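thought: fold this chain, then report.
action: predict
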Amino acid sequence: MKYALISPAYKPDAKLLALLAQFTGNDAFVPIVVDDGSGSAFEPIFGDLPPGVTLLRHPENRGKGAALKTAMRHVLESCPECDFAVTADADGQHRYEDILRVCKTAAEHPDALVLGSRKFEGKVPLRSRLGNGITRHVFSIASGAKVYDTQTGLRAFGREAMKRFTEIPGERYEYEINMLLTAAQSHTPIIEEWIETVYLDDNASSHFNPFKDSLKIYLCIFKFAASSLLAFVIDYVLVLLLSALTGSWPADASLNFSVITARVVSATVNFSVNRHVVFKGDESLGKALAKYAALAACILVLNLALMHLLTGLGWPIAVAKIVVELALFVLNFAVQGKFVYRKR
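observation:
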């Protein structure tokens, strides 16, 4: 049984050579390095790669996701002896022993995606601790699967998974979260193997852009926000319109009718968009609709209660509506992602 050891490298240093040197003489591994447009200044590093390492090149920097896909396509086309691929970062964060353990677990579970997951114990850079914590919860809501370390670069999987993963969109760091989402949505088992948390020089060698790459990673929550905004606009306009049309009614009757009618219309739009575009859940239409209706009823009760409270305190209905919707946004996102559209 052989493993393609894939290491995407952008402006690497001697830590890449140290990682590869540990696999020299281990016939179970076929090392593959992708130079992702590092430039001529890094030729000495790539020129010192140990014998037997396959070097693939991108003339210009295309991103980690593109480098991983280049290597996987090479394995599928040129390395029929490799039953598995294992990806390891070039910056020295993954120990030899941990890579071997992840590969052993993959061999025992050939249909699974095996992650070398960190517990983030000890001295961990704040941006890494916070980034992984937030992403962990967003991923759980977006996919219905629980993964502790969503940003780990140490992953092992078989050839069938390789074929699927080469078709996943994403060229840079968002590709890794897309890989996890694809695995979760296709019911591919995701197994986590605990590894040591290693950060060298406060993770200074990382090329992860906290702002630009986080925007791509959190695409799901932006889709949900856009869907919610669309529903809010529909709801907001209808509430004001219906309130004006029923202005001669008693105040409570006018408010109840306006809020309920607007909510039914906007909720129908919101359910359809979230089910098909945002969460892409696996629950049947009937069950998802029933759970959505139950959630919508609860949200409606809260909405009405808060609207009555705020308007009773003298707030204008336009301002009260905005405040109430913002207050219920986070609750709605979490419950819809984890409960409404998921079988599990």
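thought: worth noting. The CA atoms of residues 93 and 198 lie 5 Å apart.
final: tokens above.
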